[in-house]
Amino acid sequence: MPQLNGGGGDDLGANDEMISFKDEGEQEEKISENSSAERDLADVKSSLVNESETNQNSSSDSEAERRPPPRSESFRDKTRESLEEAAKRQDGGLFKSPPYPGYPFIMIPDLTSPYLPNGSLSPTARTYLQMKWPLLDVQAGSLQSRQALKDARSPSPAHIVGPFCLEFPGQADLSLHQFHLSNKVPVVQHPHHVHPLTPLITYSNEHFTPGNPPPHLQADVDPKTGIPRPPHPSDISPYYPLSPGTVGQIPHPLGWLVPQQGQPVYPITTGGFRHPYPTALTVNASMSSLLSSRFPHHMVPPHHSLHTTGIPHPAIVTSNVKQESSHSDIGSLNSSKHQDAKKEEEKKKQPHIKKPLNAFMLYMKEMRAKVVAECTLKESAAINQILGRRWHALSREEQAKYYELARKERQLHMQLYPGWSARDNYAGNYQGKKKKRKREKQAGEGNDLSAPKKCRARFGLDQQNNWCGPCSL
DNA sequence: GGCCCTTTGAAGAAC
DNA sequence: GTTCTTCAAAGGGCC
User: Fold this and answer.
1) Any idea of the CA torsion for A417, A418, A424, A425, to the nearest 10 degrees?
2) Of A2, A98, A158, A257, which sits most exposed with the smallest number of CB within 10 A?
């Protein structure tokens, strides 16, 4: 597996935005690649059928066989050259070459400061920012321009890829540039508002209708609740300096990942932190409404899964607490039990901050719709098998893009939830959707009657000392 | 209604 | 340091 940064893991200091673009030249290669991928898909589909119909003791599914032959360096060089050439054509000053060879990222110096030396905004950047950060005041505070921007935004979901479809005509599938440019990479996804046209849209457009004023204006009122929205939590990002006209509107470090609605990729919540006073975030005055998140949840009103906007946020899953049962049992509980139940209840109420998606998850989210469209399979398990094979079939450069996305996502997650730990979501801590532990099941399998046969078959009767415990019984 | 399946990767726990 | 476990997404299938 390709590891970025020499496998050095997260580098919080790395703040370079790496955006991958593919021009039409590469698109041709992509087409041929897609055709091969479709062949692979057909193979996968047939193999899936075969695998399901035949015994799976065959080793035909070995990693070596699944992986396509390694791609020639010439192809990669060609791709790289194509990318670089495309980068040069995109914008004379906005893009620059990858920082190191063999890495197909086009560096955007700082999308939060996409200003030309004279202080004006690069046209491409302006378009880019309008798409990537629709709430960003790309016109340096001009209300008219903001209104124009707002009006120009189509209420149709098609606006999501609008200008970039023009930049990349004929690109029909969910290719990588669309992946990056259309903000379809969800860091968290709204579980109930998956866009019908693209499953990669994180949030529903209903919170960002053309009629909604930009959230940085005072008139930023949630259409549902009528509650004024506080500034975007990403305002507190220390990664991107303020630029003229964007004071107080620091774009998200993953601005190109942030959904168009401008909602935070990760919500600031009122609970779930083990460290109530994170220091990684610098809180400005506008973040005062978020201060409640800095305090233990018992000191603040129980917002639970409510985002600071006052609306439930998709990234937070609050477990369903059956309070009725607990209340009905109060009479039968003694005081200590009652307190325990209360504590447990509070624990259950803590919002569930999901793990950041890893590279493969990001890839899956992008490619799932494509695979579903290409084949008749609907079962996610089968789809995921295909996606897993495709993932292995990706070149290192292609995978590296997703690793980089995942790295940025982890960085963002760390920024927003300094005290969060993956352990918080373990079944023991998070009492919401409690999954049956797979290992428990497997351990149970070890206790079944077939287990002794396994050890007996494996070690034989003369090596019973090697048998596992259950088998030795 | 909730878990399983299935994938890879990240992170934490356990040894 | 290595190995194991859990969870992240997805949605049809199953109990």
Assistant:
1) 40
2) A158
At residue A366 the predicted structure's pLDDT band, cuts being 50, 70 and 90, is very high
* CA A319 / C1′ C8 distance in Å: 17
Mean pLDDT of A20-32: 36
DSSP states along A110-135: -TTS-B-TTSPBPHHHHHHHHHH-TT
Strand C within 7 A of A422 CB: yes
Q: What pLDDT score was predicted for residue A341?
A: 61
Residue A250 pLDDT exceeds 80? no
Rounded to whole angstroms, the Cα distance separating A114 from A129 reads: 9
* Closest C-alpha among A235, A229, A231 to residue A281: A235
Give the separation between CA A220 and CA A268, rounded to whole angstroms: 18
For residue A409, the surrounding DSSP H or E stretch is helix A396-416
Question: What gap in Å lies between CA A104 and CA A399, rounded to an integer?
Answer: 10
Question: Which of the listed ranges A95-109, A397-411, A447-461 does the model predict with the highest average pLDDT?
Answer: A397-411
Res A391: pLDDT: 95
Distance, CA of A327 to chain centre: 38
Helix residue ranges per DSSP H, A153-233:
162-167, 176-181
Q: Does position A374 have pLDDT exceeding 70, yes or no?
A: yes
Instruction: Using the structure, give the distance in angstroms from the CA atom of A6 to the C1' atom of C2, rounded to a whole number.
Output: 21
**Secondary structure (DSSP) of A268-297:** --SS--SSSS-SSS---GGGGGGGGGGS-G
> Measured CA to C1', what is the nucleotide nearest A4?
B9
442-461 of chain A touching strand C, CB 7 A cut-off: 442-443
C-alpha closest to that of A223 among A238, A205, A241: A205
**CA A439, CA A431: separation in Å to the nearest integer?**
18
Q: What span, in angstroms and rounded, lies between the C-alpha atoms of A349 and A429?
A: 11
